[in-house]
Design a protein that fits this description.
32% of the residues lie in helices and 23% in strands.
Amino acid sequence: MKYILLIFTLLIVLSCEQKEQVDAIVINANVYTVNESFDTAESIAIKDGKIVYVGSNDEVFKAFGSENIIDANGQTIVPGFIDAHCHFLGLGTNQQSVNLVGTESFEDVMKRVLDFQKERSQDYILGRGWDQNDWEDKTFPDNVLLNKLFPNTPVVLTRIDGHAILCNEAALKLGNVTATSNIDGGEVILKNGQLTGILVDNAENLVMKFWPKQTRAEKIKALLDAQKLCFDLGLTTVDDAGLGIEAIEIIDSLQKAGDLKMRVYAMVSATSENLDYYLNKGIVKTDRLNVRSFKVYADGALGSRGAMLREPYKDKHGHYGLMVTSISDLQNTAKRISNSEFQMNTHAIGDSANHAILQTYKKVLQGKSDRRWRVEHAQVVSPEDFKLFENIIPSIQPTHATSDMYWAEDRLGSERVKGAYAFKELLNANGRVALGTDFPVEYVSPFYTFYAAVARQDLKHFPEEGYQMENGLSREETLKGMTIWAAYSNFEENEKGSIEIGKFADFIILDKDIMTVDVSEIPHIKVKSTYLAGELQ
């Protein structure tokens, strides 16, 4: 009998020794893998920051052992969200300036600026987030009151989309801006021949090139502040749409030091200096940083009437908008990038700008089908141009539709607006869409993105039947757009975007099942835990 017990004990020991020891095992989960078959699973095993098993509770313990068992208690797990178009550094920077999002009048804007200055007492004041379309008076504000309240302190208040700023006289004097100032791709707004303080698109540079530069310490704080906000909301990769050399090098150094853990897909601002530097240097790729794309601007924004349209704005006679980069410069830049392995990601809002970019891409790519060049926003597209997205990835932001729906038809008219925010039509054209928020233009939450894509409603559940629902996305399409398709748009689909063996263990645990919960509950879903490389953030 003792002999039998000894044999039995040895068999147990040998059995345990045969199990592969891993860093963590997740059990009792409702895992949406987002693999090719969109399978679900119960458990995940993690080793060295990567997934080594996905399957059932019973099977995971047959092959693996771990001292770290994470019991999900039946809660839903999805891959870590990827925001395919945002301004990560800008989000953090905004925490150091006046938050003007949600202001209901210009008087409300002024109160926030006064309160901010009373608390901070800064030599220069920056604010961002006002949108005149949300006010009873929907015309652009002027700087008369701003000049009275701040006669000596330069103040710049940026519109929510970043494509217009309001400057007081002290700020305008930094750039010697006068009523006769002009700049290609920009507009100095006058009223009765006098400066209003509003500068649109490239005209912003008349002042901002003289504005004090952000210090290295301020950039570091901004990045770390943004990281906390993003991890709390389940983001594990961010595509920062427009970074300079210094910012990218700071991100790299913080990641190497272990302070910045967020994965960053960096779109380099396509200035002449940056193009020369990175086209010579080549792609930069680590586990957390990927520098292999350039961000280019074609036109401005629809809200500030800077988006370039093929026919005039319905609410501004004879006005077509602005190309902030000339066609010849766009073509030259595209040609340079096409001769490298870098990706070109171009901001295009208006139908004219989208047409110009799609034609430029077609000309320089000459039929190459896997360059994964992107159109950022693809907001207003002519019917005949949708087919040109076959090999061009639409990088779109669902909350733009639900933010702009109140006034988009005023700008575009009842017919042209049918080709605006046409997410389903873009998906049908390409087979994939990459989804993002464009934060801080919109709020950071991926759940708002998910809700806007599926329900096509704002947070007040308006309109009741959804906005242009023929272009809504299914929940499966939306989750893919925020994970595997976004990863694909970054050339990273083999390392992230789904919960599969060999990929990074980037995943989040949710308090509700995003795929089955009542659609009205989606914006209120909370992230219980965010894991990056298997580590709780």
